[in-house]
Amino acid sequence: MKKIFNAIIILAITLLGVVLISEYKKPEPVEEVVVIEKPEEDRIETITMVSIGDIMYHSTQILENTSRPSGYDFVDSMALTKPYFKNADITIGNYETTTTKTKAYTGYPQFNTPVESLDAIKDAGFDILSTINNHTLDSGKQGLIDTYNAIQTRGMIPIGTRPTPQPSLRSIERKGIKLGFLAYTYGFNGLDFYLTEEQHQYMVSSIDEEKIESEIKSSVAANNDLTVVMMHWGNEYQTKPSDTQRDLAHKMVDWGADVILGSHPHVVQEHEMINDAFVIYSMGNYVSDQRLETLGDINTERGLLIEFTFEKNFTSNITKIKEIDYHPLWVNKYYKEDRYFYEAIPAKDFLDGKIDPYVPDGSRARIQAAYDETLKRVQGLD
């Protein structure tokens, strides 16, 4: 009996085990969670730069204005373009004159302008002025030095000339984007004798391909995101760039230039994209007394304001020209209160009724033509 009882117990335990095993459910597998870190978004910044052409002051522009404490007034000429300059991160132009008290104030052929012209330029919002052009030595060595110092003391940067041995390259940084600036001229109207051979080497930047190549490459080596070069070159009053201009532009792009801004012809010439680099061969006059009535050339009263947008991706460390906007200008001249007034008018703003300056009768047609023909010229559609 005992054996039978033990057998029954063993059988019961076995059956119970079978039941328990059959009732046991395997746990559901736990899905593995993979955490993917979201990459940080690229940091992208943009800045704007505005450039204009030749700032010139002929004798009729230097008339005294007794209503001003200084006796001179140049503010009016820039009033209508001032919003463009003030809204830009960087504004640059060509100061084609000198300013020194060591000689009389004169216009063409040897320019010397009251320093109040620089007060107006600073007030308008300029950051950089090229001081290297064929009129750089109009007031001699002292004129070069005084002009440089007058610009510096007003918080602007002169490029192309230097009173003492120092690097030609000047740089500006905005929002972490760093731009390098250089400037060169073809000559000095035969006034080279004002400087010794040694002074020519460090006081002025003449067009010398070996030097230009070296200095552009130094800008790249200095980790500038873009290099801007102002060139005073070409043939006066010619609406097409010369082969010499084109050849040198292509070389400068090969050396590392990203933006090339041309001046000297006093008329607008076309632009060109060379790979990803931009060249405008001439921006024409910003303000001067050159016009149809004085030179018989209506193109000299037209100019171009260019608005650049530069974009930098800090993740990839790539900076590019994102956008380029052209604003044709027309130089207004009228007689009032016993003196001449000059002002650069943004043609489209006038034609659209956004601004309402006084203009002599018949000016609207000239402004319309300036707008239409300047845009065609920039595109090479003469």
Summary tags:
29% helix; Purple Acid Phosphatase, chain A, domain 2; 10 helices; single chain; alpha/beta; eight-stranded mixed β-sheet; 382 residues; globular
Characterise the protein shown here.
There is one protein chain. This protein is α/β, with parallel strands linked by helices and about 375 residues long. It has one domain (about 45-380): Purple Acid Phosphatase, chain A, domain 2, CATH 3.60.21.10. Helices cover about 30% and strands about 25% of the residues. It contains ten helices and 14 strands. Strands 1, 2, 3, 4, 11, 12, 13 and 14 form an eight-stranded mixed beta sheet that branches. The chain has a six-stranded mixed beta sheet with strand order 5-6-7-8-10-9, covered by helices on one side. Residues about 20 have low confidence and may be disordered.
| Total DSSP E strands | 14
User: Which CATH-level-2 architecture?
Assistant: 4-Layer Sandwich
* Outline: globular
* N/C terminus separation: 125 Å
Give the rounded overall mean pLDDT. 92
Report strand %. Answer: 25-35%
Uncertain segments are 18-22
CATH class: Alpha Beta
Fill in the CATH topology: Purple Acid Phosphatase, chain A, domain 2
* CATH superfamily placement: Metallo-dependent phosphatases
**Count of helical stretches:** 10
What is the C-alpha radius of gyration, as a whole number of Å? 33 Å
Which class do the helix and strand fractions yield? alpha/beta
Question: In which range does the helix fraction lie?
Answer: 25-40%
Order of helices and strands: HEHEHEHEEEHHEHEEEEHEEEHH
Largest sheet, in brief, is:
8 strands, mixed
| Tally of structural domains | 1
